Amino acid sequence: MVQLTPVLYKAYHGGHLTIRLALGGCTKWPFHHIVASPNKCPTDGHFMEQLGSYDPLSSSYGKKLIALNLDQIWHCIGCGAHLSKPVEKLLEVLLAAQKTDTEATETRELTSVNIAVGTRLKSS
Amino acid sequence: MLRALSTLGARPLGRPPTQFLLLARGRKTRHDPPAKSKIGRVATPPAVDPAEFFVLTERYRQYRQTVRALRQEFVTEVRRKAHEARSGVLAERKALQDAAEHRELMAWNQAENQRLHELRMARLRQEALEQERRQAEEAAREAREAEAWAQLKEREVLQLQEDAKNFITRENLEARVEEALDSPKSYNWAITREGLVVKPQHKGS
């Protein structure tokens, strides 16, 4: 039996950091934490850092509450983190890049995002 | 065949019904042959509108270009920050300050050690003096005790010499015996609890 050193382990197993939504809450009441965690971990498992939260049920007149630690998100992306599709959708308003025209109209008309930026969000 | 299998569970057979297969969409496995109604079927992908396709590809390209550019920006930012932290102006200044602080603290420590050393030497000298004084006192006391002991012994010896003059020897044995017989002594006395000697008041009692 051979145990691989960290370099070889990483080269063989791969895996990368991903910024994604981790589902929490309870039945009929979902709540998502925006979290930077390794690719191979389960979505709501061990994570490196919490970067915000997304509450899908807090819509007052079509608005949803999203908290984002932008400094830390840019830092994670700079360190080579991937983004999952929902996180891309949440951030495309900030990136000012809409994928398709239909999606752009959707985001403009149906869900006008109310972003509450937290500069120093600590992981819970 | 599957319908027959699924009805097995409904019939009571004396033991709990075991489910062999779940009823789900796409009930054929990969090893089952295709149906007769699907012989001449040709799978055609959905038609592509060229204009929409072009627009979509353009938009995806622009999106990915934007995202890639932003990602590169963030990467350069992180590397710049790491470089600054390692060997930037602020880092050097901080290193100099740390070195100066370290020197100051070491100097202060040295001074403290010196001061404590001085105190320790003074204390040790004091203790040495105390020790000498105590030893001198001990010696004096012992000398006094020895002298007292010698004087005591001397007094005892003198006392004994004086008592030896009244000892009974062979020469004056006869004389002493005659003397004792000539002087009668009365032992007829008692002593009370308080220590008073009680002698008989009159003769013959």
Question: Mind explaining what this structure looks like?
Answer:
Chain A is of the alpha/beta class. Helices cover 30% and strands 30% of the residues of chain A. Chain A has helices spanning 6-13, 70-78, 85-95, 101-109; strands spanning 17-26, 29-38, 49-55, 65-68, 82-83, 114-117. A 6-stranded mixed sheet of chain A has the order 5-1-2-3-4-6. Chain A is elongated and about 60 Å long. Among the domains of chain B are: 53-87; 92-164. Chain B is built from 4 helices and 2 strands, in the order ααααββ. A two-stranded antiparallel sheet of chain B has the order 1-2. In chain B, β1 (190-191) and β2 (197-198) form a beta hairpin. Chain B starts with a helix and ends in a 7-residue tail after the last strand. Chains A and B meet through α2 of A and α2 of B.
Short characterization:
Chain A is an alpha/beta fold and 124 residues long.
Please give the structural blueprint.
The complex is a heterodimer of chains A (124) and B (205).
Chain A lengths: L5 H8 L3 E10 L2 E10 L10 E7 L9 E4 L1 H9 L3 E2 L1 H11 L5 H9 L4 E4 L7
Parallel strand pairs in A: 1-5, 4-6
Antiparallel strand pairs in A: 1-2, 2-3, 3-4
Chain B lengths: L1 H7 L41 H38 L1 H76 L8 H10 L7 E2 L5 E2 L7
Antiparallel strand pairs in B: 1-2
Helix pairs in contact in B: 2-3
Keyword list:
A: alpha/beta, S16 Ribosomal Protein, Chain: A, disordered C terminus, B: 205 residues, mainly alpha, two-stranded antiparallel sheet, 4 helices, 2 strands
